[in-house]
Fold Bifunctional diguanylate cyclase/phosphodiesterase.
Amino acid sequence: HAAKQTGEPVRRWTPALDERAGEFVRLGAEIRAALDHDQFRVVYQPIVELPSGRVAAVEALVRWEHPVRGVVSPAAFIPVAERNGLIVELGEWILRTACRQLAEWRATLGDRAPERVSVNVSARQLARPQFAATVAAALADSGLPASRLAVEVTETAVFEGGQAVTALHELRALGVRIALDDFGTGHSSLGLLQTVPVDILKVDKSFVDNVTQAGRHTVIAEALFQVSTGLGLSAVAEGVETAEQADALHRLGYRYLQGYYYGRPVAEPDFALSAAIAAGSEPVRA
Ligand code: C2E
Ligand code: MG
Ligand code: MG
Ligand code: MG
């Protein structure tokens, strides 16, 4: 078809593109088979509350245990599942698995279990008018109260408004929390906070990486914390890998941290208290 007026070049159908299309179809078929053969697993990464070091919540992250390739990262197959629509079935399975798992931990561990599980939801799932009903059914079948579930969506999934934002209102009405994932890296970040129902901002790892060096990342990490508290939201800092980063974030006011420093995503996380951060670093409040 004709080139768009923006001047985008028309992409020619080259053998390389053809191979990629073939790879897309092959991988799609493999995902279908993997669903049928129960090759997906859900792992859980702690979200730690400071200063106690308690595991307040966990994020559910999917893994593909491929019989030949080993553990495949979601970055390699979620985009394919999003494009061919299989994310709807896979996503519902992840949601149901995560709800059942937290209900089981709550039943066996009581208050030593995390309070909440956070589940990633893709744009394609959110765009379906049935999405809130699917969530309600997963909660009812697992016995997990709605307040123990959060859905993580990206700014990109909701910035166009429409059915995705309707779905978030419906989820909120059920009592499910809404987290904006990778916050600060997508479209129209701050504007979204005026129109989209949100409870939790997950501040992207890119702002955490250099938070120990005074510089622009630190300024942004601090500003995002101030925005979230000012709006009555909780802020979670993602991708915390060192004690120094944890300490710097705590000084900026952050109370919820997630990252390899506290634990990698695993099938059965350790819910014992994580090492508290350096003494004497009381959070600075505005
Ligand atoms: P995300 O939702 O932002 O998840 C955080 C990713 O960062 C996870 O990668 C996690 O393992 C990784 N991570 C956590 N702490 C650290 C750290 O300290 N350092 C570093 N370098 N990485 C850290 P993962 O599990 O590979 O997932 C990648 C992305 O794939 C996720 O990003 C999410 O967008 C998507 N994804 C994962 N599971 C699901 C799922 O069940 N459904 C959907 N729709 N998407 C998923
Ligand atoms: Mg996430
Ligand atoms: Mg994230
Ligand atoms: Mg991320």
About this structure: The CA atoms of residues 212 and 245 lie 6 Å apart. The mean pLDDT is 90. The pocket of C2E (ligand 1) is lined by residues 45, 61-62, 73-75, 78, 91, 94, 120-122, 152, 181-182, 239-241, 259-260, 265 (CB under 6 Å).
